């Protein structure tokens, strides 16, 4: 299992120290660094800016929202960043939710799975650059129907550095996860927990059964899970750092009838707890909503506590389909996880049989 770092999206402004943190991640040998977007900062600009000061770390968007850009615009950005980074870019995509798609971008949200399938197909066609791009689907039509009638199929003027540039999909429901396994090169889960590994392993297997032989082999499929990490000798104090994050996504992201993040948490067995958190959030009692997030829930979705506790709990993640843990935390969290990861690699090198068994447990 590899180690990454997830910077997320900005709150009121640029996060202080982010550039230094990215450079430290590169120095520590961390495999990847990721940015995100909601309805403030975008995912691509910070990644290019901070990534320009690195040499080897992979650069990914987790996620770039599909409604923010046409498929061809997204492909242009991807091939540009891949050239500028020397082939280190991973395009992470996601549909977001109806509140953002319709409220912020003014785009329709209907049939997100079918829309995603079309979107990814067009991006891949641009990147392969085998012919002028045409699309005749119900969501995206190239050239545009109507208008002046002067539109014609075009092919990118820029030759992609990697025609098979990896595309990862953010997904939370089982059908979306299966779609990621079918059409993408990786899955970006949020609120993953080792306890539900079997559920998502089955969803991935369903998608792999439909996977085209033209794509990368299923054995190379990546699962990069965002995991909050807080290092503190006091577990409760560490959990307090994560509780507001969990409460925001349970109660404040999406509507009461369409909150895919809450669905993911409820799948862990916290249905009643989610009802309480969401009700408090809806009443504007955000501090109480955060306080209502159980410590057990935090420990399921995050790594909190002293380094020894993190090491013990990390062992459970090593047996899941997750191939990369994306640390969401400060410099102390990143350095601690880098040390723990290095010790895991040393143990694996000293015990080839254990390493092979662990690899086999993640066979998809």
Strand order of the main beta sheet, please?
A: 1-2-3-5-8-9-10-12
- What does the radius of gyration come to? 20 Å
What spatial form do the alpha-carbon principal axes imply?
globular
How many distinct helices?
15
Element order: H for helix, E for strand: EHEHEEHEHHEEEHEHEHHHHHEHEHH
Strand composition percent: 5-15%
Task: Give a count of the beta strands, DSSP E runs of length 2 or more.
Answer: 12
Give structural notes:
The protein has 364 residues and is an alpha/beta fold. It is 46% helix and 14% strand. It has helices at residues 18-28, 44-51, 71-84, 98-103, 112-128, 174-183, 197-208, 235-252, 260-266, 271-282, 286-291, 295-301, 307-317, 331-350, 352-361, and strands at 2-8, 32-35, 58-61, 64-65, 89-94, 135-136, 141-142, 167-170, 186-188, 222-231, 303-305, 324-328. The chain has an 8-stranded parallel barrel, surrounded by 7 helices. α3 (71-84) crosses α5 (112-128), α5 (112-128) runs parallel beside α6 and α14 (331-350) packs across α15 (352-361). The chain starts with a strand and ends with a helix.
Summarize the structure.
By secondary structure, the chain is α/β, with parallel strands linked by helices. It has helices at residues 18-28, 44-51, 71-84, 98-103, 112-128, 174-183, 197-208, 235-252, 260-266, 271-282, 286-291, 295-301, 307-317, 331-350, 352-361, and strands at 2-8, 32-35, 58-61, 64-65, 89-94, 135-136, 141-142, 167-170, 186-188, 222-231, 303-305, 324-328. It is built from 15 helices and 12 strands.
